Amino acid sequence: MTHSELQATYDHIIVGGGVAADKAARAIHGRTPDAAVLILTRDPEGPVSRPDLTKTLWLDESTGLEDIDLGTAGDTGAQLVTGVTVTAVDPSTHTVTTDGGNTVTYGTLLLATGASARTLEDAKGGDDSRVTCIRSVSDYRDLRSKVSEETRVAVVGGGYIGSEIAVALNAIGATVDVYTPDDRLLGHMFPASVTDHLEEVYADKGVTVHHGFLLDHLDASGETLKLVPEHGSAASADLVVIGFGAVLETGLAQDAGLTVEDGAVAVDASLRTSDPDIFAAGDIIGFTDPLLGRRHVEHVDNAEQSGEIAGKNMAGDTATYDYTPLFFSDIFDDGYEAVGTLSTDLDTLEDWNDDHTAAVIYYLDGGIARGVLLWNTWDSVPKAREVMTASAAGMLTGEDLRGAIAVG
């Protein structure tokens, strides 16, 4: 669908094209199937399963882009316009304005704008075609088209995205180097018992991790890219993938006068913003977690669950978002699921199996479990939430947590 085919008014407008938008559209359709719904996204593609952009598409040769397309418009009857940017939201007139010059009226509005990849803004050569991130289908296509066996790829950043894309690139035969300013890969999340193991696994698979490398700028003046650190020797690569994390897309909300707290769009239990006819879901929301209080979470489970609740309420339901999201990843032959806050700034209590291949690791604040890592331990997320609830109530604290969740 194009700009010129837009109606003047819709019952519901969704701004954003990720999984939160998909879940919201499905929820609206399920409750009010005849409602007029418009989805506006600046992505050139419709909603897809974004975790697969750094996972399945690289690791499973039988999976293609068509397999991760969520089919939102076809399944829900929503009108989907891609490649369009919403430039303004006016709560007083219930309108949104697009970069194509259209102004459209809504009954309720959902902001599901997500986040954009953080970049090295002042990098020399930072706009070079050999420098990319991995956030969208377009990013995936671009990177995949440039990588073949023995392509030398530098992944800058040793966090969640960096660790995943390194595995993905290695799977198709690229020569991968990871550059991180930290002492350990994923060291901000995992204790040494896990990170030491990961360092060995990456090395065994042929991925080299360079610690203490704080990138200053990129030099794209030669045939190969040079990564110049603040201190130490430069490195070189054919391609650079930036994995610095993401920036929440809250600009529309701020410009519309909606309340933004600690960088996230503030929502109540119904996922309404400070304007009762504007909802928000996904990465951008600051919500009340029933176990951890006010927080924001940049993971797909939160996007899916909050998108569904927002969509229901846009269509007249009175559902509440009282949910503690999980997140997950697979790293070569290891995998994990996690709930809550995983930060090595907290104390940790580690519960390993006998052969040290699986663990449950509790992240403690004053002896209270604020996060649980299920390392190679499956089907235990509901139990982890139960244990965190009991811990917050003083029923399980400190060493009493050991054995509360079966390992492996």
UniProtKB/TrEMBL annotation:
InterPro entries: FAD-oxidoreductase/Apoptosis, FAD/NAD-bd_sf, FAD/NAD-binding_dom, FAD/NAD-linked_Rdtase_dimer_sf. Residues 10-307 form the FAD/NAD(P)-binding domain. One of its GO terms (biological process) is programmed cell death. Keywords: FAD, Flavoprotein, Oxidoreductase. GO terms for molecular function: FAD binding; NAD(P)H oxidase H2O2-forming activity. GO terms for cellular component: cytoplasm. Gene3D superfamilies: 3.30.390.30, FAD/NAD(P)-binding domain. The keyword Membrane does not apply. This is Uncharacterized NAD(FAD)-dependent dehydrogenases. It comes from Corynebacterium variabile.
